[in-house]
Amino acid sequence: MYSSSSVSKRLILIYVLAIQLLLINSELSLNTTNDYLNHTCLVSQGKYKTGSEYEKLIKHIMKMFYINSIRGYDLFGDSTFTAVLQCRGDSYGTKCRDCFVTALAALRRRCPWYKGRIIWYDQCLLSMDSKYSVGQIDYDNNFCMSNAKKVVEDRSEYIKVWNILVDDLTELAITGDNSTLYSVGEKRYKGDMVYGMVQCAKDLSRKACQECLWYNSFHFQDCVNYFRGARVVGRSCTFRFEFYPFIAKQCRGDSYGPKCRDCFVTALAALRRRCPWYKGKIIWYDQCLLSMDSKYSVGQIDYDNNFCMSNAKKVVEDGVTFIQVWNILIGDLTKLATTGDNYTLYSVGEKRYKGDMIYGMVQCAVDLSRKACQECVLYNRFHFQVCVNDMRGARVVGRSCTFRLEFYPFIAKQVRNI
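== Gnk2-homologous domain-containing protein ==
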């Protein structure tokens, strides 16, 4: 029995398809794979010797990359060595770190002692170069992979559609406040939807990013035209399009696998119906949220799109103690969600109140920093205290963070007693 207030918005072409789904067990059915794609040993740059200063530098930089890989990107460049780690725009945290570890081990095995080498996986690339190459477009180390199936009807229309999609995504990736040089989106082709992504290495300027994508879309047109899906991958930029969605989503911490996928499908269909053609739109379900925005908003707290839903029944005795208990519970869960190795920014727990047990959950969008997560939850606790205080159950829901408390267990596995 809930009373509520709400918010919504929409888009087809978006920065970082902020499919910030209400929370986090990243059982991301769309990007769980991390397939090996390709590698190249830059033979012309020669090899280094065991114990050399070059080897010591590589080891030092790779340790730094391991620490920073949770950000999704790292870069080092001087006159003798350039290294780049670039994870896919929807791969960060432990996913990026795992890809980096896999890529580094594979590079050592496939290109032992080579000064220059590059390896590509589905979710990251790792590049090393014996000269300074920061900000320079690499025109040589690019390749194309296409689907075996071809489009069988109206091919000229299809080529037009994917060209428009890649051009639009390129424009989105290099304009406004989009410092990630990354964008994803979709465009309709007859009865199907074509999904696309573009991304440039973050050391490139916006102009260089645009030039790189234009060059590759022209250079590899024979590999891309007519095929039901293709990707052009390089050291400096990449683009991809498919007839299925391949960018990650996130669901509530206890929602994963088919449950998360079903919620995403339901949310996407409902958004198209409720907010047709709107560039910005958000929809919330119990198990997920789906958000799309026409501007770059990754890592930023959304203070506007939040609402509260409370139980119709109130706590009838000792309301002051109850308020104290739920505030301690949410405070403790916020701390749990933002400390240690918890990159999910998600926690659940319970706390005793008289003869009852209060169950709670806190979760933030995974693009937030830990500090921003804490700030978001604290802001919503204060802003919606009238809605939450004295109520036998409430949830405060937003684009950036949510918390919930009930007098019954509502998480699939309620595990922690605070």
